[in-house]
Please model this.
Amino acid sequence: MISREQVENRVLGVARVLWLAFIVLICVVPLFYMLLLSVRPLQAVLSDPLDFIPSLEELNLEAYRKVIASPSEGGYGLLSFFRNSLIVAIGSVLLTVLFSVLGAYAATRLRFPGKNTINTSFFAVYMFPGIVMAIPLFVLFSRMGLRGELGALIIIYLASTVPVCVYMLRNYFRSIPEGLEDAAMVDGCNRGKVITKIVLPLAMPSIAATSLYVFMIAWNEYLFALLFLLERRDNWTVSLGLAQLDDISVSETVLMAGSVLLTLPVIALFFVAERLLVEGLTAGAEKG
Amino acid sequence: MQQSGHEDMSERPPGQHDALADQDDSPQTRAEEWMPDQPTGERPRAGAEPAPRRGRKRGGRRPLGLRAREARLGLGLVSPTLLIVLLVVVLPFLWTILMSFQRLRLIDLQNVFDITLTLRNFRVVLGSPQLWDMVRTTLIYSIAGTALSVGMGLATALALRKTFAGRWLIRILVLVPYVIPVVSAALVWRTLLNPQFGPVNVFGVDILGWDEPIGFLSERSHRFEVLGIGFDLPVALLSVIAFEAWKTFPLAFLFILARLQGLPKDLEEAARVDGATPLQRFRYVIMPQLAGVVALLVLLRFIWTFQNFNDVYLLTGGAAGTEVVAVQVYNYLINRSDVGGAAALGLLMSIVLVTAFAFYYRYGVLKQERDA
Model:
């Protein structure tokens, strides 16, 4: 006679393994397929779409060459878009980290009028519809002639990520004991010194996590890049450039090579700093 | 308010400030000193803060000066953030409200300053023949997307709760859909689901014996026959829902797993000793403790899915019965150059979101405060 406990344990055990297998499959297959298609000739893909294991001799990097090369060399010029994406992403990271370190320090260590209101209302920004925000900004930047400028994009990414970053950093700053700072102040450090010599070094892991988060958002973003940069081809980001390639029916292998190149920096950063990012994002979730 | 506070404090040198404080230490003066512009209703909270008392105990040396400087510094440090959010989020939103009552087209933007208000935009938007189709599509998309995303996240978090060899690897792999750029993800899905050579369709036709390939991203509805019973499914809509769930369940997974690992073990242990089976322990012990984080995720995901533009636009362009509200706002703005119409529809969309947020705020936050 088996107990209900044993039956449930066995059934749930099997279900668990099946579910995890399914999850791993749906997470890995798209990435694998992207990589596979990017190194195979189109003919081989069309003749046998289900052949997931390419033979060694058919591997080639022709698709990469084609997607990177400038239009004058018969390519699609993706390489020049990397510069734009990097400018936008790094610019957004630097500004956002600067703003959010100051904001988070104030929000954890200092008392000032309106503090609670500010903390709560930041949360509301987090869920603001991007597309609604885009309408007036589109009109404004069109009139100011800023449409097409990478700077406009940086400002938008700054505004849309800084509230979350303040929130992430705030959780971390709270865990740094205040006694250390008090001691430094007693010893004659001013606030500026306290922030640069004590808070920043201690908060480095969370600052790294925040930077990574902003970098990913800015690197991956599509809607605002589409709205603001479409008419300025030389300023396209990689995401926009690749999506535009899709519209002019470029061969799938080239599209996948482009996708790999677009994904690579983000995945690389993510694997390096996965733990940091996860801890930064979920800080506070343990408490519910 | 910030500005006048500054002036008020810089007028007096710190020494004078102290003398003033020593003369009159009534709570009222104190509160007014460091929060010059706060309404009087704020005073009890200010008085409840421990710092002034601590300052007095140390011998009354410049407690108010410190306090005032702290307030000024605090405001100074948050002001860049505040300013950018105000300029790029809050003011544009207020402007959207105005624009939704203006007759404004992209080609003649000079009209921006013409504030002849009209209800024409709302008449156009609400009178559109596709309105109810769009509302239905958006609601199905966001409700189903949310449920699937949070459900998958919950199942995965539960499955990965116990440690086993290789768990760290699965944990990392699960996050892949969330971190990869949406453009790459959409392109891969389009290739995988391609009717001619996409492996999903080839697998279906060659191995599962489908009669014909399915246009997962191009067919409004497809007739399926299971055991002789035929029914139509909105395949394109289901595909974009699946994409949304696939792309976002890792976030739900992360939050639920973090909460799961923070749960005290003793409750579950007690339930086990009392003879509760695993399913009963989940139902009566674990799930109630996860309710808070799940409720929060459901709301966040609903709000984000409701306003999602990228996924649908990149996968189907809004065709084949997948035109959600965000895509339609974009179409008003770009394809019809109708800024006023876009603003009106965007405003209506925001009202739904604000309602959802208010609902959370009313029930979610209050609930957490009660529990704390």
About this structure: Residues 1-61 of chain B have pLDDT under 50 and may be disordered. Strands of chain B lie at 222-226, 229-233.
